[in-house]
Design a protein that fits this description.
mainly alpha; about 0% strand; homotetramer; about 100 residues
């Protein structure tokens, strides 16, 4: 399905990369909380925050995918396969 | 709410820490995919996998919290506040 | 696993039943929106609201399950099987 | 944002309406389970199934929205606002 890149997100990678860096830091922070025997519920809250941060990146990449790849395919009258792929991806994200 | 630790999860930290290490590695892998202009949908799938992995750790910590802190509190006739805190945490996790 | 009822939620069914009635009404409202060719995104929002309402009932029943069945089992030193069942249920709810 | 209908889903309402009817039946079934003092976890599983069924309808309507309204707007060079609206809707669905 993948058009040959670069993709729309590629034009502005810095904010995505800095969000991912932050998620990496959140993971390290959670490891430290476990090592320090911190309270279970506080750790669960940090895991929640990490997943929510990953979902934000997911939505940003999905948005640029729709604005870029999907819109381009629709213009070229080849939207159908891209929309099927998009829906399969959304189904997995909703069902995760 | 937090009883003074160590908590039940503390007795077996190694598998939790290795899961978190893996999540950290997934985050680094996603950063690399972005840097290498990989296809949007492939990145979204990896973000999904990362969140699913974080949810697994969340469930493991929650399980040991219930078996440990909550069960202990129930035995001491002090379950009510712990169950309220647990439900608030579940509500946030479901609603994330 | 099921202890013989009545269960804790049974002592106060009215609010649960009225929430379920409301969900039934939401479903009927969505059917009507479809019949009236209403805008897709407005229908999606109502479906979201319906699922959120179902999740609220789910959390209420789960709370009374923990306060009732699970707490009782823990008191009787039979918490383990109940907690396993609870975690399997939470895993499905998170992963839905 | 709403284009004037009828929308793409309108051309094939029968399967959507039959799914909604089934959800309505699931709600009635859950009310009956509560009235009959059925086991908490069994009720929670049915609530999970109801939400999953609502999510399936949500995905179907979203798919026809993207194939219809969004694709049309993209063809008319007016995709931007529709994509913003779509992303806001996806954010709410993921975060529900």
């Amino acid at each position: 399905m993948a058009m040959t890149g670069p993709y729309k997100y590629s034009k502005d990678k810095a904010p995505l990369l800095s969000r991912i860096k932050k998620i990496e830091g959140q993971a390290r922070g959670i490891a430290r909380m476990i090592e320090e025997d911190r309270y279970c519920i506080d750790i669960v809250q940090q895991l929640n925050a990490l997943s929510a941060a990953a979902d934000e990146v997911l939505l940003l990449i999905l948005e640029s995918h729709i604005e870029g790849c999907v819109a381009h395919a629709i213009h070229e009258e080849q939207g159908e396969a891209h929309i099927k792929e998009l829906m399969a991806t959304l189904r997995k994200a909703l069902r995760r």
